[in-house]
Design goal:
It is built from five helices and four strands, in the order αααββαββα. The chain has 210 residues and is an alpha+beta fold. A four-stranded antiparallel β-sheet has the order 2-1-3-4, covered by helices on one side.
């Protein structure tokens, strides 16, 4: 029901094509998720079982050595306690390795965001109250139809309602007014184009509440 072309698709009997595509993509996501879960479960099982197997093997070999008189019971007990400490250390190291990978990916994403160049924009003197003018604001999307153009004027204290069916692009146009998505056309507060404002000054002036 969120598809903008749902009625035409039903009219020409092509809705089953999208349903089949959805099932195909869902099956692919399910296979990838199950494969990832299986690899993760094997990794966790191996990480926990290898130290336990080492302790078990040490107990068997140490028990035979105690029976033959080659080592004492105290030496075997010391070995078991030491292996328990090593087992805990191995499990902790395995968990930290997994956290390290996730942290590296997260740090890379944060670094890419922080490295985005911000062109310097001068502060513009703005009045406390003025008219908001939106002229021909259009958002073009690569995989969907363009949204707009939107043209409106909102005076101080005036309520403006943007209506339309679900998925028609109302929220997208509001994001464009707040300069959160690229768009053609312009939105201005008085004589100042919102696109020319410094980000700090812009977001003190315009707020989007989804």
């Amino acid at each position: 029901e969120l598809l903008s072309a749902l009625l035409p698709l039903r009219g020409v009997g092509a809705d089953h094509v999208l349903v089949e595509r959805h099932h195909r993509h869902s099956a692919e996501v399910t296979r990838s998720t199950m494969r990832l879960a299986s690899i993760g479960s094997v990794w966790e099982a191996v990480a926990f079982s290898v130290p336990l197997l080492a302790v078990t093997t040490g107990l068997l070999v140490g028990g035979l050595a105690v029976a033959d008189g080659r080592i004492t019971v105290g030496a075997l007990t010391t070995f078991v306690l030491w292996m328990g400490t090593v087992s805990l250390a191995v499990n902790a190291m395995t968990a930290r390795l997994g956290d390290l990978t996730e942290a590296r990916i997260a740090a890379d994403r944060i670094a890419r965001v922080l490295d985005l160049p911000e062109p310097p924009r001068p502060y513009i003197g703005l009045p406390e109250r003025d008219v908001l003018r939106v002229n021909g604001l259009t958002v073009r999307r690569p995989d969907r139809a363009a949204v707009g153009p939107l043209t409106l004027t909102a005076a101080p204290g005036e309520w403006v309602v943007l209506t339309g069916p679900t998925g028609s692009g109302k929220s997208t146009l509001l994001r464009a007014v707040a300069q959160l998505v690229p768009a053609s056309g312009n939105a201005a507060f008085g004589d100042a184009d919102l696109g020319d404002l410094d980000p700090d000054q812009l977001y003190r002036l315009v707020g989007l509440v989804p």
